[in-house]
Design goal:
This protein has 327 residues and is α+β, with helices and mostly antiparallel strands. The protein starts with a strand and ends with a strand. Strands 2, 3, 5, 13, 14, 17, 18, 20, 21 and 22 form a ten-stranded mixed beta sheet that branches. The chain has a six-stranded mixed beta sheet with strand order 9-6-7-10-11-12. A four-stranded antiparallel beta sheet has the order 1-15-16-19, with no helix packed on it. The protein contains nine helices and 22 strands. The chain folds into two domains: 12-244, TIM Barrel; 249-324, Immunoglobulin-like (Sandwich), CATH 2.60.40. Strand 2, helix 1 and strand 3 (46-49) form a beta-alpha-beta unit.
Length: 327
């Protein structure tokens, strides 16, 4: 049974961020300072520079009162048909983002240092995808990082390859660069499967941009007490955020047996529910009206989770994190 809940807090301010991008410290086109300034000028408050196989922490150099960086990296494990790169059959990509102060103190392997390189895990023709992925997840967590699973469609993996993984904080359900580049960046099918398996993963949208041509299309809006690393990370871990490629979400939760949402004008609101066939519903504007700004869905009592997505007139989406059954 899903209990009454308001998913956003009464206190806190809203901060816009991109959790996935690349600079000249890996395969990006812009230097870190250029990238940070571009996002700050676009109204973003925080950015994670997630270089391939390289941990970076540029907070001392680039943090400002109105803009901060989240240290981290993108790590991968890949199976190749030949040793010729970049012919990859399947790959796991994970973000590792620096956790809270408590997570840093508890890091079994200590913390990565700025510009520290970790080797890319490569396999030839055969691999155990779950074992390969879990080893990498565990390594990142042992270094005080919280971990995401990125762009499964682009990575050519199946659910069996990564849904058994443990220790994942969130799945990247919208990757703007991949969706913009080759239509492989959007995936809620695997995400809903994870929720049906009670994995408890959050969902997030990001750019994964390597320049400005593939930037500013996927982001998170985080409600936090202040713009500092500790508060932003804690809000992310708590799920006190929503993801978007355009629309805004102002409130959502459960009240008097109904799931509700309030948002900017949209043309469709989906209540996606599990684990019962035909659970959930979609709400459209009344006849003669162009948009809606709120909707509700009456629960039957057998839903194991409900998440909400809102689509605007341009096809852009915003996604909530799931509300799950109380055990």
């Amino acid at each position: 049974m899903l209990a009454d809940i308001s998913m956003f807090q009464k206190d806190g301010k809203w901060y816009k961020g991109n959790l996935h991008c690349h600079t000249t410290n890996s395969d990006g086109a812009l230097q870190p300072k250029q990238m940070a300034e571009a996002f700050r000028k676009k109204g973003y408050h925080f950015l994670a520079m997630t270089e391939h196989e390289r941990y970076t922490d540029l907070r001392k150099e680039l943090d400002r009162d109105d803009f901060i960086l989240l240290p981290g990296l993108e790590a991968s494990a890949t199976v190749h048909d030949t040793w010729e790169i970049p012919y990859e059959m399947k790959t796991h990509h994970f973000l590792g983002l620096l956790g809270t102060e408590q997570m840093q103190r508890n890091a079994k392997a200590g913390l990565y240092q700025h510009m520290e390189h970790i080797g890319k895990r490569m396999y030839f023709r055969k691999w155990d995808p779950v074992k390969a992925g879990q080893e990498l997840v565990d390594e990142l967590r042992d270094h005080g990082l919280f971990v995401t699973y990125n762009h499964p469609v682009w990575s050519r993996v199946t659910g069996a390859d990564f849904l058994p993984l443990n220790g994942i904080w969130a799945m990247e359900i919208f990757n703007y660069a991949s969706e913009h580049g080759d239509a492989t960046g959007y995936d809620v099918i695997h995400y809903d499967q994870a929720l049906r398996l009670e994995k408890g993963w959050k969902a997030y949208a990001a750019d994964d941009n390597h320049s400005l041509a593939d930037a500013f299309g996927g982001f998170v809006m985080v409600q936090a007490l202040s713009l500092c690393h500790e508060d932003i990370v804690q809000a992310l871990l708590d799920g006190n955020f929503y993801s978007s490629s355009g629309p805004e979400i102002y409130a959502y939760g459960i009240r008097d047996g109904k799931v509700y949402v309030e948002c900017s004008p949209v043309v469709k609101i989906d209540f996606v529910a599990g684990n019962v066939v035909s659970a959930g519903c979609s709400v459209h504007p009344p006849q003669g009206e162009e948009s809606i700004c709120q909707a509700s869905f009456e629960l039957k009592g057998n839903e194991s989770f409900v998440r909400i997505q809102c689509m605007d007139q341009y096809g852009r989406l915003a996604w909530t994190n799931p509300m799950t059954a109380q055990k």
